[in-house]
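Colleagues,

Please find the record for the three-part complex below.
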Amino acid sequence: MAESKPTISFHDFTSCEGCQLQVLNCEDELLDILGAVDIVEFREAIDDKADSYDVAFIEGAFTRESDRKRLETIRSKAGIVVALGACACTGGLNVLKNFRGLEKSMKTVYGDSADWYETSQALPVEAAIKVDYKVHGCPIPRQEFLEVVTSLLAGRTPRIPDHPVCVECKLRENECLYHKSQYCMGPLARAGCDAWCPSYGGRCYACRGLISDPNNQAAFDVLEEFGLTIDDVLTEFRLFNGVYDVSQPPTEARVEKQ
Amino acid sequence: MSQATQQPAEAVSPYLPRAAKIVEAKDFTEQEKYFRFEFEDGQGIEYLPGQFMEVSVFGIGEAPISICSSGGKRDDLEMCIRSAGDVTNALHELNVGDTVGLRGPMGNGLDMDAMEGMDLLFVAGGLGLAPCRSFILTALENREKFGRVTILYGSRTPKDLLYAYDLDAWRDRDDCEFLVTVDRGDDDWTGNTGVITTLFRKIDRPDAANTAAFIIGPPVMFKFTVLEALAMGLRKNNIYCSLERRMKCGLGKCGHCQIRNVYVCQDGPIFSYAEVMRLREGI
Amino acid sequence: MLPQILPKDKLADFARFLMGEYRLAAPVAKGHQFAFEFIETPEDVGRIRMDYDITILPPKKFLHPMYEELLRFGGRDPATGEAPIQAEPTVILGAHPYDLHAIATTDAAMRAEPADPYYATKRDATLLIGINIRGYVNDEQFMADMRTTEPPEGGWDLFMTDLGDRYYVEVGSDAGSKLHQAAGMFTQAAGDDHKAKQAFDNEKASNLPKRLPYDTRYLPELMSESYDSLLWDAVARRCFSCGTCTNVCPTCYCFDVQDKLNLDAASGVRRRQWDSCQLHTFAEVAGGENFREHRSSRLRHRMFRKGKFIYEQTGKPGCVGCGRCSVHCVADISILEAYQQIADEAAVSAMEIAAAREESQ
């Protein structure tokens, strides 16, 4: 890269900002990172404003039409745009409101004042601007953030896994949740989290999105054998992956049968 | 205590590359760049045409690249590298004086002495000319050992032609026949236009039983060209190709290049059509 | 090298003795299942479960680790590369016969020229102490068919059989012989011990019936016949391509090689990590072409490696019949069932079709 230190920035949209906290949680590595880059915008830690960034990290979902302009400005100032975390990559949990209905959601949250606020369908950042790389997860795994930073500094493509969570879960020798008569999105979900949730007693909700070639046929067949209804399966899919087509059942007939 | 606790003399890693300096570099096309390397340890290298090297850029990774210079024992070696991924992109940024890591030679290659007295037909498509060139140059350097030599080369457009200086030299030689075609010509192009199989109509019928063919190019070209070669009466055992696979370790271990029970990095990349045919998943 | 006896109440002492000289790996409980782990402290010896049914991952993880450094570098300059190859003296205690066979297979594959010095160095520094099985380890096992119910010819050091209050310990190597002598808690087996071992073996044999309708000598040939079968497409419909089968397989050893960068984005390590032929990126080349793009071709490749290719390359079983791949498969894809199915297909040979037609006319 250039001889002066590359500049990076962090921007937040609709999110809990937990992913930026994960960045600050890289305590052991932060000093080294600061030695390699200049952080020019980071509301969680500093409040400078810069004219351009080599790498812009964007956290949060695109949930208000008025955010489009801000996203476009970031895109125009940034060499590389990285979506940081589930909300930015897939819309995250925010997408649930799309299924519930925007009006109903607004009424629930804001009551009579609902009209005062602007909202639109919750979407991933790439619905508004081109995204170069994605750091998936709710929250992001620290090691993947570091992989992206070091890779971009070295001028290579970050190694983001595109295989199921089962790979990492097996390497940790976890008892398979299916064998404990529970279910889990692991076989369809993108790895890279080191099978966080299954390793600590939870089940996988695919917060890192789906792999690029999920076997939907197998998902519906196998999950059905484990006693799940189409609605159960859809609920699991939608929690973090509502924006994917896969959230639509393969045939309407099957839903009606339930 | 027991034998098992005694540490053996430390083993040498086959993954540690040798440092090699770029002594010549030129851009062939927007995507393809030519390099000549010399080893820093001054030990040189010996290889057969058809063999490849694992080219290493620390921090990025390794990529398997065919050697394009003539075979034998020598001080340097040449490669034509297409930018297709992180490693090859990084290599494209390098210039004379820079160093890379090289492991090899790897793969089987082919000893052309075994073809002494035979006619040779070279058919190269696109970047396939790189590995094919190693065979061609080896044959031309030992011209007296072989009968007729015919070289057919096809590329997408005139801009994509590689090794312009070699092409001129081959055209000028009167001891070999050289024909080139492009899929799509441009305003300046006066040569053949059409896919490479059209060149088969323009050459004299070979002495089929005594001809070895080297067909190296993208899989789709291989299929149609083998048909032409077989139709001319060439023997399946005398038609050779080079298979491209994801050769990660180069040592027959990692499994990425495996086609059925064959590790391309060890048993290949040069196979006869008779062998490829049996592999089923080969092409 | 005559068989020895180790009183059962001396097992903990023996384990502690081993820990004095070696890193000790042994089976311990992991939830309702079992896993090989390093026993870190003398108190942890009590966690060792020689009566385990089967571990989730096989002991290959100690010889061919999930992540292994191949070399380290200080920057782009190739002169900065160095590759120290080291191994700590290790004992794997409690490997079942099928896992000992699998290690023999991996030995042959990794030591084949050009040999892998990382594996070889670890393997040379490792002693194997096996433990016999009584029979049942899981619903999908078919070791009797794969001839892996007894330890292989060589390659192990001690092999223990649980005779109730004592272990009957066979000695497989000079290193094993020296080990039990140095431990000083073994005595030579006597007449009653041999009889008890014989009784154990008889019962074990009756617990391990064959499950395939053919002799596995013909497995490679049957596999060849099945290459174009629709079976692979049918099974692949349920396959998530999640790589579980290959990760838990004791004879799978494929790996990927990646550079990990330090935060200076210049220095780092080149390391290998387990990879799986079931993952869709496995056979993809830089230009984007994928030579096993379809799930079914990947699934078939694994079945062929297990039933044919590895055997043809090493002369040792590519599948040891442990059943791990099948019991851990979320979709219940069973390798045993696949091997049964291909036999059904092959039984209907061309001649039989002709005969059947003649009869019906």
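The CA atoms of residues 56 and 74 of chain A lie 7 Å apart.

Comments are welcome before we finalize the supplementary table.
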